[in-house]
Write a structure and sequence with these properties.
Blueprint lengths: L2 H14 L3 E5 L6 E4 L1 H7 L10 H4 L1 H5 L2 H11 L3 E12 L2 E15 L5 E10 L1 H50 L5 H29 L9 E3 L2 H14 L6 E4 L5 E3 L1 H19 L6 E8 L3 E8 L31 H11 L3 E7 L3 E9 L3
Parallel strand pairs: 7-9
Antiparallel strand pairs: 1-2, 1-5, 3-4, 4-5, 6-8, 9-10, 10-12, 11-12
Helix pairs in contact: 6-7, 6-8, 8-9, 9-10
Length: 365
Amino acid sequence: MPKNDSLKLLIDVLNHSPLATAIYDSSDLNIAFANDAMLTMWCSNRSIIGKPLSEAFPNFKEEGFSRILENVWRTGISYKAMDTPAGIVDGDVTHTRYFDFEYKALVNTDNQTYAILNTSIDVTARNRALQLLKKQEQQLSDNHDLEEITNSLAHDAKNPIAIVRLAIDTLKQDHLIDVQKREQWYDMIDQAMISLNTIIDKTVQLSEARAYAPEKTLINVADNIKFWCEDAILLYNSPNTRVETGLLLPVLGDQGGVFQIFTNIIGNAIKYSSSVQDPVVRIYSETTNKGVAYYITDNGIGIPEHEINEIYYNFQSGSNSSSYRGSGIGLFIVKRVIKRLDGQINISSKVNVGTEVRLFFPNQS
């Protein structure tokens, strides 16, 4: 079959597919194709074909979707998300709907992106049904939730304890350590004890309540990032790791929950990039019209794409991480805690290239 006929057939198939599909064919996210199902989902028409996404749908840029697509184009790493809210503009009305979607990077032999295939499913009805079910089951699940969070807090207590033990062993063994270095170790011990105290405080709160109900305040992440990174570098013996930070915005959450989320994600980024020649971890944030999104990226071993959803389960790690110590409980904890803060976590990864974690914290409780 001639090439043009094959292309025509493919477009015809996509046009008639019930799966909402769109294709972006340039770095400015030009909408080269959108089938009827996608146009219906977007509440739009074919006049948007040939326009950049941010021009056709300014609200998608405000909500952070354009930035995610730009990252996919730049890195060639596909992005999947589930139960993600998005504002759909229908005339003068904006409806919040929920979607399972994928931004699939299409790359050439030089690993350069030449197009992004966007597929999407509207799961609003499913999301609402699940929310109703969760409310009905909440009272029955209080004891289970309490046990789950208590276990996660006990898990997180191990890191500051390990830092203190490492510092004490170093100070005991090296009697000739200079004053400046000794003070740095003392600072490490002090910060670890502050972290441990936070965990103990949260445990006391849990013992007095049947369920974990975080009281949200504005948490200044920038004040803590340096200590969290230094602790992880020491813990995973990765002194060559270079941490690069950008804009570090405050987030709405509770101190214990934000601590759990960031220390686990930063720890994973440093741990799983520690064996590469020039390990780099980047941490930055951006605002959307619904909240703050944090990005934590590394150039480590990555996660097999088909295993990304599995690693959220308790005691699950990537199949290529067996040589790294850990129980695999970290991401399980993060997903549960950020869900309690009404936020989201999404992971994009490619084996031997690295991992990007996107953490979203909404503006409102």
